[in-house]
Amino acid sequence: MGAFLALASAACYGLVDFAGGVLSRRAHFAVVTFLGQLGGLLFAGAAALAVPAHAVRSADLLWGALSGAGSAVAMHFLNRGLSRGAMSVVVPVSAVTGVALSVVCGVLFLGDRPSPLAWLGICVTVPALWLVAGGGAAGGSGRLPADGLTASVGVAVQYLGLAQADPASGLWPVAAGRLAAVLLLLPGMRRHPAGIRDAGRPALTVLAVLTGAGAALALILYLWATRQQILSVAVVLASLYPAVPTVLGLAVLHERVTRAQAAGLAGAAAAVVLLSLG
Which pTM does this prediction carry? Predict the structure, then answer.
């Protein structure tokens, strides 16, 4: 069940990244990011009220807030990168370092002990995402988007922080994280007059809020996955979300697929099988 929840989280996040990337090309990325986190706060708050919590400690909320800070960084730079570059490159790059950092921290500091099959799946995942990102194409490895790499650090903080919350806290750490993200992104909104004007467009506002609600759902699924699966495996499975916007970018936006990207997608599929069996 833990593997299924992590994969469901990846599917949700992939759809959200695709939608956020499309919106970031039609409106200022800052307003898309802020409204998304606001939508996530509304959804997470309602979900936290609906799901019983036996004991919510201040430490759990602080871990959630740290996770939210990572989310704010990740989504700000991810949407900025998506507004500038190809979706099938920017999103996978943001996941590669996030996977590596999360697994290293889980093994070295949190006591994770993946099985041999899981280790094989982890080892397959990083190069698979690299290939999906275009790292295997001529000249691709030297021009990795800085926005994607910065977002990857936020992704790692988001996943590691949220996983430290006690299960007894229910979903309140997710809600605390969305509140922290909104507060961190609010000053940026004020610095972008164009983004404030975009926020007055009803259709954009609704779509951005819905993408944020989807991202909050993805985090909730990930949190539940970490409570049934070791962190290293849950993070890697959840981090396979780039496959979704990459495929959609190729199919819907008609971005070209290379042999390296096709091999990367096949490697990602193999990693899912190995991690699920491990």
Answer: 0.82
> How far is residue 140's CA from residue 143's CA, in Å, rounded to a whole number?
6
| Domains: count for the chain | 1
Note whether 170 and 52 are within 8 A (CB): yes
pLDDT-derived band of residue 192, with 50, 70 and 90 as boundaries?
A: low
Q: Is the pLDDT of residue 229 over 90?
A: no
**What range defines the domain where residue 238 resides?**
2-277
Type of residue at 95: A
- Residue 142 — pLDDT band, cuts 50, 70, 90? very low
155 vs 26, residue with greater confidence? 155
Q: What is the DSSP string of the chain?
A: -HHHHHHHHHHHHHHHHHHHHHHHTTS-HHHHHHHHHHHHHHHHHHHHHHS--S---HHHHHHHHHHHHHHHHHHHHHHHHHTTS-HHHHHHHHHHHHHHHHHHHHHHHS-----HHHHHHHHHHHHHHHHHTTTTSTTGGG---HHHHHHHHHHHHHHHHHHTS-GGGTTHHHHHHHHHHHHHHHHHHHT-HHHHHHTT-HHHHHHHHHHHHHHHHHHHHHHHHHTTS-HHHHHHHHTTTTHHHHHHHHHTS-PPPPHHHHHHHHHHHHHHHHHHH-
Cα–Cα nearest to 49, from 142, 174, 221, 223: 174
Mean pLDDT of 20-35: 80
8 A C-beta contact, residue 225 and residue 33: no
Say yes or no to pLDDT of 88 above 90.
Answer: no
Dist CA 176 CA 172 (whole Å): 6
